[in-house]
Structure formats: C-alpha cells, structure tokens
Amino acid sequence: DHEQVGTVYEFLGREPLAIQYLLDQYVFQPNMNTIDVNEFQLTASGQELAGRQLFGLCLGFSGTPNDLLPRAMGSCAYALGVDGKVLATLSDVDVVSAHLVKGWSPKGLLDIV
C-alpha cells in the first residue's frame, strides 16, 4: 500500500537505528560476494560498484581518461570528441559562470548552490 509505505517512511526515514537495520539486513550481507563488510568504514571503489559482482556485467566506467582500468574491464574505449565537448561546455558563458566568494566556508558554498 503506497500510503502506508509513505507514512512509515515519514516516521523512520531519518531514524539512525532503522537505517542501520536496513543496511545490515538487506544491503551489506557478508559472504554474498557483493560489497565488503567492515563495521568501521563504508567505502567502495568504482570497480566494485560497476563490476560483475553486483550486476553481472559492466557497460561503462566514466571518469577514467586513460588506460589505467582494472584488467577485468579490458582496454579503454575512448569516445571521439568528448574531451573537446567538455572543454566547450565548461567555457560556454551561457552554461558556466564564476563568482568571487570572499570568506567562504564549505557550508557557505553549499548554501550558495
């Protein structure tokens, strides 16, 4: 029932113990060859998140503009013209603007965006 799920989410969606239970029982299950379980640290590499362990195949791996990919992924297949498109977009004044922010803080920058 969509309404009941919404009501339960309203009450439990930000409750740390409920979130921990969900993660422990349904996300981080040891010996399932998915994500490594470590009670002191939550991390995963791009290879772990995009690798065969979770989905059975890997269709892409962005953010690696060189051949330093894991061996299991084979060689890098470069998309022709992508670097130029990125540079064109980042230098387009209709897309990007710059502002000098004096006395900034990380929280202050997040408040701006």
Keywords:
mainly alpha, 113 residues, 0% strand, single chain
Describe the structure.
The protein has 6 helices and no strands. The chain has helices at 2-12, 16-27, 46-50, 52-55, 82-90, 106-112. Helix content is 42%, strand content 0%. It has 113 residues and is an all-alpha fold.
Short description:
With 113 residues, the protein is mainly alpha-helical.
SSE arrangement:
Layout: H1 2-12, H2 16-27, H3 46-50, H4 52-55, H5 82-90, H6 106-112
Shape: extended
Order of helices and strands: HHHHHH
The averaged pLDDT comes out at 77
Sketch the major β-sheet.
none
Radius of gyration in whole Å, from Cα? 21 Å
What kind of oligomer do you see?
Answer: single chain
- What's the total number of strands? 0
Number of helices: 6
Strand content: under 5%
Q: Give the helix proportion (percent range).
A: 40-55%
Q: How far is it from the N-terminal to the C-terminal residue, by CA?
A: 36 Å
Sequence stretches where pLDDT stays below 50 over 5 or more residues:
none
- Helix/strand structural class: mainly alpha
